[in-house]
Write a structure and sequence with these properties.
Helices cover about 45% and strands about 10% of the residues. The protein is built from 18 helices and twelve strands.
């Protein structure tokens, strides 16, 4: 692959501080991507186009974009924005002008003033005297959501300093329009510090005031920034940090974990991501980025696409939980938060998930077989080659089972394709991968491709 410069996390690397993380995973999965490319080049040496059907953070799309036409498809809006930035980078002049705009943004000062009571309180918890009171730390993490407070969702037992800060901020917000502070209202104090969320909101406001044709690119850098600073285990939005152990006692090191993420400078990191996206290598290969259901995308797939790479979610974990924060920030639509029953009473979901968020049929045991059957059928009817990604799991180690096991997938594929082969990195692997009595080394079972084609 002809790329100038060192590759890190999907795009050309700059000097990124080691503490920063990213939603792109090329750095950790480079060998997997090289394996996929080797198979793709073998099956289609003429370098026709490839469809990345569940493109997510765009690693596969980015990896193939210099050599082949790429059609990146995902139902989630955050994916559409990130893949667009990866495949269609903007000029550095846009970055320079937007950075200058942010340097002089009045919204930074105004927003910080509005949220000052919460910013000061949280700083005292993270970096000041209140940090020595672990009960106060836990209370803030468990009750620090402004959305929850404004919704009057079980805030009867708030500590006086937190209630007073909320009251003052609520009063301050009356001078602003209702469609402001999406990051601070939904995720401040829970996933980000309020100081960070206010800066995210200022950036979002300035993006909204730019030419619409540039907004997607500027938002991509914001999403990467948000993913880097999110203060959770695993750096995702599945659920906020649990500050207490199973016995209800504060966890040791909780303050240290807060300081690590919640003191990251948002604007510095955002500028880093703007420059990193701009430095991405670009090839005029007629790429497309579609926000669509996989069935719609396959039905309308053009003739110049030869290979469909599919890596759908296939465990019971609904992947939209892990990205709901990015989805909300990308849509900027102020959604209603879903509720759940706790102790017989309806409460806001702990993760503050979007109501009616996208939940893939591939994650639902009762629906997944039909979804896979539709995938096989549509690709076969289009006479494309399907590369279905599958990650084996070790039942003995308690790994989350796949809703459809590989033996079943292989049988289903053979109904629609006359050639089906299963490969893993470096060796051929047959369909007994998930048997409890088959002990595979982790390297051998890390990634599998089910190759399906009609010859």
């Amino acid at each position: 692959m002809a790329v100038i410069g060192k590759i890190e996390n999907g795009i050309v690397a700059l000097n990124k501080p080691k503490s920063f993380r990213t939603i792109h995973y090329l750095g950790s999965k480079l060998r997997v991507l090289e394996f996929i490319k080797k198979v793709v080049d073998e099956l289609d040496p003429n370098r026709n186009g490839i469809c990345d059907l569940f493109s997510g953070a765009g690693s596969v799309s980015q990896y193939f974009s210099l050599e082949r036409k790429v059609v990146a498809v995902d139902i989630q809006n955050y994916s559409n924005i990130i893949c667009s930035a990866l495949l269609f980078p903007e000029e550095s002049s846009l970055v320079n002008s937007f950075v200058e705009r942010m340097n002089n943004s009045k919204f930074i000062v105004e927003y910080q003033k509005a949220f000052q009571p919460l910013i000061i309180l949280e700083d005292s918890i993270i970096n000041g005297e209140l940090g020595t009171n672990l009960e106060a730390v836990c209370h803030f993490l468990e009750n620090g959501s402004l959305y929850s407070y404004l919704s009057k969702d079980g805030n009867n037992d708030l500590r006086s300093e937190l209630r007073e800060a909320f009251d003052r901020v609520e009063e301050n917000l009356k001078s602003f329009g209702g469609n402001s502070f999406i990051a601070s209202k939904y995720f401040g104090g829970i996933y980000f510090s309020y100081k960070q969320s206010v800066l995210l909101d200022a950036i979002i406001t300035e993006i909204g005031n730019t030419n619409i044709k540039h907004q997607s690119f500027l938002l991509a850098a914001l999403l990467s920034t948000a993913s880097d600073i999110v203060n959770t285990v695993g750096k995702q939005f599945a659920q906020p940090i649990r500050p207490r152990n199973k016995n209800g006692l504060p966890k040791k090191g909780i303050v240290k974990q807060l300081r690590k993420d919640r003191n990251i400078d948002v604007f510095d990191l955002y500028k880093y991501w703007l420059h990193k996206y701009t430095s991405n290598q670009f090839a005029e290969n007629g790429h497309q980025v579609l926000r669509a259901d996989f069935k719609e995308a396959l039905t309308n797939l053009s003739d110049d696409i030869r290979i469909v790479y599919a890596d759908p979610p296939y465990t019971r974990d609904h992947y939209s939980r892990f990205y709901h924060g990015l989805e909300t920030l990308s849509l900027r639509d102020f959604p209603t938060v879903s509720k759940t029953k706790i102790g017989g009473k309806e409460r806001l979901s702990r993760g503050l998930y979007r109501e009616n968020r996208e939940q893939s049929d591939f994650c639902i045991r009762s629906k997944a077989p039909k979804a896979f059957e539709e995938l096989f059928k549509l690709v076969s009817e289009k006479n494309k080659i399907l590369l279905l990604s599958y990650s084996p799991y070790d039942k003995l180690k308690g790994a989350h089972p796949r809703v459809v096991e590989i033996e079943t997938l292989e049988k289903m594929a053979r109904v629609y394709f006359d050639f089906v082969e299963i490969r893993s990195i470096g060796k051929l692997v047959h369909s007994k991968l998930n048997r409890a009595d088959l002990h595979l080394e982790a390297e051998e079972s890390a990634e599998v491709l089910i190759i399906c084609q009609n010859r």
